[in-house]
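Q: Two folds, back to back.
A: First:
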Amino acid sequence: MKYTHALCVICIVQISFINNGFSSDYGVTGLIDIPTARMSTDGVLTTTAAIQSRTNSYSITYQATPWLEGAFRYTGFNDFYYWDRNYEAKLRLWPEQSYIPQVAVGIRDLVGTGIFGSEYVVATKRISNLDLTIGMGWGRLAGDGDFKNPMTILSQKFKNRTQVQGGMGTTGVFQPGQWFSGEKAGLFGGLQYKFRNLPLALIVEYNPDQYDWDREFGFKSRNREVPEPNSPLSAALKWSPRPDLIVTLSNQHDQEWGIEVSAKLDTKSLPTKPSPRLFKSSLDFTQADLPSGINRNSWYDTLLFDVERSGILLLEATIDEAKYMATLVMGNTDYALWRDAVAVLANLADLHLPSIVNRFEIVIEEEGHRPHAIQMRRPSLNFGRIPQLMELDIKINPVKQPKFVQYKTNFVQNKVIFDVNLANRVQLFDPNDPLRYQLYVNIGLGLMLSNSWLLSGMYGYDIVNNFDESKRVSNSVLQRVRSDVLKYLTQGESGLDSLFIQKRGSFRGDIHYRVYGGILETMYSGVGGEVLYQPFRSRLALGLSANYLKQRYYDKSFKHLEYQTATAFASAYWATPFYNFDVAVHAGQYLARDVGATLEIRRTFDNGWMVGVWATKTDVSAEDFGEGSFDKGFFFKIPLNGLFGNNSRASYINRMRPIQRDGGQYLEDFSGSIWWQMRG
């Protein structure tokens, strides 16, 4: 028997809610199940696990800007075995003011099956230790509805809403025709009371959701009765043992108990700067103490010796006595921030360079590319100057081809360098088991050849994995360019991941190139190249990339399958002035010979964190693509600088897809990658 609830809403409105960025069971900032108008702090990444008798739900939520919150959820139903993937976005319309509540609008199940489909406008106001929330919802958040849908005043099209009944809706498709539609809309609300001097908060919420889909699908798929909610009221106690961790115990609908754990990570926070370490310059060494080949009377030799012990590289150096200037070409091996690396080189050069030099021009080389040069006054000549004048004296210039190079470092060639470390592979969102994993030893090699050619390779030796437990078999109607990945993870649990030769470089200072050939990655061998046109100090750049590829055999040996293909893309990049968001568009032909475009949006922070999303649409129909309808996912680059108390450029990079299909697939590290690699 369904309840009526108009009077309950009036009671709730009089005493509603306080939110300090707490997550709901749905991942977005909210109470228990319902959203509020509150937002997390800008740049905060939240992971949430909510366990109850009805569902198990796991979500990742990111505060993309101070006014935009996005979430991805993976929810499993316990009454019948089914896992659902869906997204939510919430936009703050205006912040709270003295007599005006904070207001936000959101869409739940923005891209998904529509099982959790609902839209809402919600307002939240703080009164002392209380935060009061009331919202108007459509879809599931409307329940049985309290009044006629006000959107029908604008158009009668808003009256019709397709109900997801007895099964799934269309998977992974935007359905804007559904948004804010339905014959009726309903009210929801709640309160949060924050105890003074205690890390506790009490929550009461009014949630009109009748769980109609859960009950109908559960009955049809398993012939089991899934109970309807006893009451629209739920209550919870939130405990925050530390600022970045929240544990919630809830009693929902007077029917079931639930527990939620959410952890927050501030992706904008800067790591603690390592303490300065004692450093003995080569100037304090005797000739006998220096390695053979280092001449104590050569400023270049002694500078080179100090530089290489400091986590940077000195590639070239030239002194122009007529201009009283030294040009130094540098690489960076250890410093997450290039400005730190430049400062180290400038200070060391100040120690070693002849007194005739009063200006430095430091040319940056990143991944073999030289994007710009930094010109500055010799640091020791700045003694007594105010910082503002010192900053005005620093110029960023385009790179010019030198007429001659006075000194050039000859790095050791034909010497194999090995790198051994532990690595992992993780496969999420398998409906039969949400987590598949592998722990393996990653053996890397590098060999510097003549003319700036480099041979690189990776071999993975399996320690433990559970990919063989997966029973999923690809049902793709397209060429299986990616969906057979499980075969590579089982038949090739140990094997050669890559072995290729490449060369990188720059023409002038605005054209950068890369050519390569060999075993490029786990699934493909081939040859290819990329060129990037990056005008000096421009926010815009253009690129072209192309590959001719052959699919590798599943055991990751030197054998290949019959499938051959080519990919080619024209790319455009924009480093926007908005919150350090970067946008890239790649248009061309993908691995399955489908044609379309990929949109990437990433946000980069000063500490090296990079978080983003992408979506690809090609001429493959949603039906032929299969589950998910089109390719999409998340990108994370997590810096490891300062993790062990030292400087490091190491990072953990992960691309997360809700589901792996064959449409819109390409070699992610070999198609439109130069611009991202130079982003630092």
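A: Second:
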Amino acid sequence: MSLLLKHIGLGIATVCVALVAPLAMASNQNSPLATNTNELTEDDSSVPFIDLFRAALPFEDARPWLTGANVQLDGNGWPARLNGQIAGTRFLSNLPAPAIPGGRYTVFYDGKGKIQYGGDAKLVENAEGQDTIELFAGSDNKFDATLRITESDPNNYVRNIRILPPDGVCANNPFKRVPNASACPGNYQAFVQNYEQQIFNPDYLDYMKDFKSIRFMNMSGINNNPQSSWNQRQKVTDATWGGNQTSRGAPIEIQIELANRVNANPWFTIHHAADDNYVMQFAQLVKQRLRPNLKPHIEYSNETWNFIFLQGNYVRDMGMARRLDTNKNRAGYRYYSERSVEIFRIWEQVFGGSQRLVRILSGWTINEEVAETVLGHKDAYKHADAFAIAPYFFGDHQSVQLVRNLDETFKLMTDDQYRYSINNVLAFIHKQKAIADKYGLPLMAYEGGQGLVDFKTTNDMQMPNPLLYQANRHPRMGALYTQFLEGWKKEGGTLFAHYSSPRTYRRYGSWGSKEYITQPLGQAYKHQAILNFIRSRPCWWAGCQQ
């Protein structure tokens, strides 16, 4: 089977989808777990793409400290006119040294001009349209790198920058990075020659291949993103897919391609302000390009009950405008429910029914009223295939600020005096399962795992953050993951989407099952527990095995 994608402006003419290894296909379709992707940023330690520039900071977002105020950008975000200034960006930041190989990277670009490199990137040699740089982690054992376009011909300006690593893969194993042709005589595919077809970091594919489904919420840039029309969506031809909350996101084509490569059901989240045409075009693109054996999982936005997000306030305003309730919060719950059903119907129209779809309504783990309102409003449950929550265990937000040793940190998660201990969270799950049963829907988790974070801290090494990182690196955390996932199964839960893919531990949380994509399994006890659960507990609910 092949799939053709037009990657105009990226130097990518076509992308041929090779069938992945049958063993990988079989194992992940029996998996009971999904995973959440990360936001596309230059410090994402899951490193999804071969081309490091795919997640670079957009030139627009780098104003005024790297890109001059007078620099004019074209429609794809490339600097078309420097106007006597410099256009710059950061393509690596705070990335752990083992996440990518150090060495000589090839930089391709179209147009005529000159590029300077900064941070841990050093120019070795240059020719027209091609630079060679040395990229080695700094003394802090992290990668930080920038580039600046200092000269550019306005009639043929510098664009289509690609930053490619020195190694490749064997043609018969897309999941393993190898250093050179001696690793696979006769079928070596160097990234420099084959990046157009390979697209994804093999280490990332190797991580993703164990999950039954991939939730693209973060990678698609859902939170706080007001895009509403189809022409506002992220495009394959965009200079970069990274950036701030209102601009970043992988194109839908790339999300579909990743699902195809690892044979995982894509879990799509739809932007909160997306109009009907956007939804229809989205569905048509998925129908056209997704493997026919895969089921699109459809969810309207993310945590619209959570009013820290733009989407939470949007649904409240829309609910009040529709006069769905006199209470703003309930109006928001009702609008979320109503708009979800409207979106489901558009997808059903495109797909000729709901047989191939998994239509998901979501709620708030600790709030039964949200579940009842979302499912019951105008019989929304009759138009859905699952109800999803996000169970996290962490103790409580106040007590986490007070821990001063590792035992106290683990006590937060295991002592039932804390509202969000494992046992108490399993009790919340039990109540949500009863509501899902009442409406005849299976219970899923759109997110979940440990949630140790102190949102009051202002720097990464402020207490208690070092203790929270230490707890997440400890074998005891792996044991708690096993306990929690077994409890989820016992309570009758179905597909569980862990949060999240590998990411660096910061004051914002220690969410990743690994700290970086290549972290050895022997150091990643959370991920050990996840893989052991997948392998020892094939999915148990009716119709789950394919």
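Q: And?
A: The chain has 13 helices and 22 strands.
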